[in-house]
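INFO batch 0412 | record 1 of 1 | parsing
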Amino acid sequence: MKQLATGRINDHIHVAGNPFYPGYVLQGKEKSLMVEAGMNLMGPLYMKDIHAILGDSQKLDFLFVTHSHYDHVGAVAYLKRMIPGLGLGAHERVSTLMRKESVLAMMNRLSDVQRGFFQDITADEDVTITSIETEHVLKEGDEISLGGLTCRVYEVPGHTKDSLAFYFPEIRTIFAGEATGLPEGKDGSGIHVGFLTSYDDYLTSLEKIISLQPRCLCLGHGGVFTDGDADEFLRSSLTATPVFRTLIESYLDRANSDIEQATQNMARKEYDERGVILQERNAYLTNLSAQVRLIAGMKG
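INFO prediction complete | emitting tokens
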């Protein structure tokens, strides 16, 4: 089954925020954990929903993020200010980046241009992304117990160098951010392929996630796949990845290997004309440029 990332997913998982920027709240017998922190502009809504889910927002013990992009770590600083005892868990590289002023400034700029769309959520609250400490630097093989639920950490690079997946074997549920790609198209039947830093690592990470045989896949944006649909989506994403590489190569060939020209041509056709990609255009262009550059380098 496929469902929007909203409300109650099952007895253990509820969603804070909205389907575009879901924060997945998991409740064990002893501890609670939220996976993902979306954009900073979502901060007040996360707080409201965490309170509704847990009965008291201060009961949230951990906040784990899957990777370093601004739309996954954006509300971390706000949530840590609002919940003083909240423990952040992230890859070591995320920990380093979130203390760099240049990175924080860029994240705030990317968010500020969208503030008008979130005015009903943010109002006049200060949701500025500021330097933060990471209490739990996570790596492959780490396990964190919530009491009856165990979070196993897997490194899944390819979308970013610092991508992590969090697997809960007791409920066969995985949270992998964008390491699995995302649904694309008006009916969600397509695949938005997400390799940005390594094509080969991306494929290897997908194979690793598939090998875990999750029965519930909670995506970084949009939806949740359960039962056979989780496996079907993952295998479709694996198949779509080399197809997308071939598409990029065709644009590079037509542009005589001019990366900028190939990127602009591809954006015009695949984004503007097809009109099925929901990602904000500037963010799309930034990611597409990285993908085209990566494949151009592999072509030699």
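INFO post-check: The chain has a mean pLDDT of 96.
INFO record closed
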